[in-house]
Design goal:
7-stranded mixed beta sheet, homodimer, alpha/beta, 16 helices
């Protein structure tokens, strides 16, 4: 039985898919918090390169992937689509479970897809250094890799709890030549303000974003790079879903359900949006889209859909999104990449419209499913990815009861090689 | 420019290549240490399944890969062949550097290739449990994965110093469902004897082998599994070189030099032997074969070619090989997989015959090259693999001086995700 679907490098998509062309009405624009008026593109120019701002506002259905970006992509893309036959057997389910595996990128997750694009556009437009934040370190290591590739300097503010919990990921960022600081740090006013009130703050993505933005605004030829949430970031990630569609064609399948984890929403959107586009074009049926988050950071399941800041220090524009409030600091779960108070405006809109269904699970059940996946398939999911895996396993178990032969597609956003310590405690608890 | 050469899953080799058919005279046989006479196959039957013993003695040029083994291989094989263009640019070399990337296996190295085959043959022949030893943990995790896949139990004796120093690799072994004990343990007589004399013994591979063998001999339907050195292990690894030949054909290349690291010799042989076979058959020119070891464990460059035991406790048959003496204890370098006193008899013979050239490098220069590779190509080599990378970089630098456009093929045996702590100290030292 064929279980792995590979594309040759010449089958790598040459264009990203832009969902803005297929929404029934435009997204609510980002607002300038001083005026509550829609933000002008110029207002973003201090932070982002021109091309990324254009992509943020763009309504073309497809956007060309620059050849130098494709060249870097080809080092690990197209990524494999794999059928989890052993997992299906272990579950005794008639469901067919596929996963799109992004763990083979240089830094082990989907984050490299947009890191390479953003570093490239910055390089072309004369940026010398990029600043960013990172939670568990997936995004920070991806941007460090991309900057090393295009000869840019890189400064990463890493959420303190992850900085302390994940020394290997921190070391990887340094290995790629980037500078890394625990956040909140004393380097920025935003960090100082938090430390003054909470000297033992575990940090949050919201705080780290404030620090990275402040650092970019004060640096020479320095810009800021965000690893999720924004439209252009989601755009770059659609290479995942575009490949998956080609690969499911090879398998002769179309998914009934597409499931991914959501922190800021980019990995989920990167997989799901091209399937949405196919349905909007009338070419295929629309799958169910399941966006999975942790119960302790329930942005989509418990948050409000309203304008809010993307960061704690309120330096960002106002975005219309699901939010738990810009001050929300989630508890220190292992899935650091899902500890974000907000959600991509595109994902938020599609949740509000009922196209995407949100789900929340607790850490323990998520890890139990991740262990089952690892023992069946031999691949260890990142704690973030484990949320998607758990939701898929729950679906497949239901199919075992009902006899339904559903086709389930998992967005396997990254491997858990740097999260083994987290597994160790959980496996000892389970085993 | 095309830089990545992928094969579809149906292009996975269906047969392993057996170099025994192409040697100009048979290998010197393993001897029974009690009689100094060639060992009978029956003498090995208590430890290994019948099929592995047959493969150990086999002289057919090709051996079929069983379909269930191919099915597991296809989860990560064929593995990519990649051209290291960025590294070439960084070196300013006219050489073309390719690497065959084995880091994408479930446990991150080539070890899974033989672990899956050995677990399969054991399962078919009714084995219920496998025992083994592991140093740094690459082999232990690969066998744990393979046993989980075929429903076998697995007991791993891990050298105590590594058990304490490498909690991530230890946790990975447990995650795949294996039992893991620090060696020396109180579970075996061999372990008890050591502990009685040295309660704080850090352990050694020699002691761990003794424990694993004793455990196998006393267990019901329990056999023992070795991750390198033996002919059948090298046979299973030839899938690497067979794929690489197909992929270099796609690239329109034939290597001038094939370079790999050597501990017991299996990853190097797995890549190199099929190229040797092509040359013996008169179809292609014979590349230079470079086998790279650490200066502090200089088995090939400083050892003697003679009969010796495979373990410190002298429980194994006598093998004709390069050896530093069964009592040799190498210092605790990061490349734990290269800390072995002996060498595969096949590799040893070809070194003695001048077909394979041995080279030895020091840890510091090896790590400096590994950092350059990681920063150029975005992939972090295991400390063992880094030895091959360093030798290739030295060759490419010489080409930059002479202007020679050599084609260099690196055996990239595994990633360094579990060795980041080692890098961290070195990068801080370098950077």
């Amino acid at each position: 039985m064929k279980t792995r679907f590979l594309l040759h490098e010449e089958e790598l998509p040459h264009r990203w898919y832009n969902v803005a062309a297929d929404l029934d009405r435009p997204l609510d624009p980002p607002l300038d918090p001083r005026t509550n008026e829609p933000l002008s593109p110029e207002a973003l120019a201090a932070l982002f390169p021109r091309t990324c701002i254009e992509q943020e506002m763009c309504s073309d259905r497809f956007v060309d992937i620059p050849e130098p970006v494709q060249e870097v992509y080809r080092r690990w893309r197209p990524t494999p689509l794999q059928r989890a036959v052993n997992l299906e057997r272990a579950l005794g389910t008639p469901a067919r479970i596929y996963f799109k595996y992004e763990g083979g990128s240089p830094t082990g997750s989907h984050k490299a897809n947009t890191a390479v694009a953003q570093a490239y556009y910055n390089m072309v437009e004369g940026t010398k250094r990029l600043t960013t934040e990172t939670g568990a370190g997936q995004w920070g290591s991806a941007l460090a890799f991309a900057c090393a590739n295009f000869g840019l300097e890189c400064t990463v503010f890493m959420v303190r709890v992850s900085y302390d919990q994940k020394p290997y990921r921190r070391a990887m960022i340094r290995l790629f030549g980037a500078k890394i600081l625990p956040s909140p740090s004393s380097r920025t006013q935003a960090g100082q303000a938090v430390l003054a009130m909470h000297p033992d703050s575990p940090g949050s993505l919201g705080i780290a974003i404030s620090e990275a933005i402040e650092e970019a605004l004060h640096g020479e030829r320095t810009k800021y790079s965000l690893g999720s949430v924004l439209n252009h970031v989601l755009l770059h990630q659609t290479v995942i879903g575009l490949e998956a569609i080609q690969q499911l064609d090879l398998a002769g399948e179309w998914p009934d359900v597409v499931v991914g984890c959501v922190g800021g929403g980019s990995n989920f959107a990167g997989l799901a949006l091209p399937f949405f586009g196919e349905a909007q074009a009338g070419r295929r049926s629309r799958p169910r889209f399941l966006a999975v988050e942790p119960v302790v950071c329930p942005t989509l399941t418990r948050g409000e859909f309203r304008y809010d800041f993307g960061d704690t220090a309120r330096l960002t524009p106002l975005l219309k999104m699901y939010t738990l409030g810009a001050d929300f600091v989630p508890p220190a779960i292992h899935a650091g990449g899902l500890r974000y108070h907000g959600m991509a405006p595109i994902v938020s809109r599609l949740v509000a419209d009922g196209v995407i269904e949100p789900l929340a699970y607790a850490q323990k059940e998520v890890f139990e499913s991740a262990v089952l996946f690892a023992q069946s398939e031999g691949i260890i999911p990142a704690p973030e990815t484990a949320h998607a895996v758990h939701a898929a396993i729950e679906l497949a178990r239901r199919c075992a009861e009902t006899g339904e032969e559903k086709v389930i597609l998992i967005g396997f956003s990254g491997h858990g090689h740097f999260d083994i310590a987290a597994y160790d405690s959980v496996v000892q608890g389970i085993g």
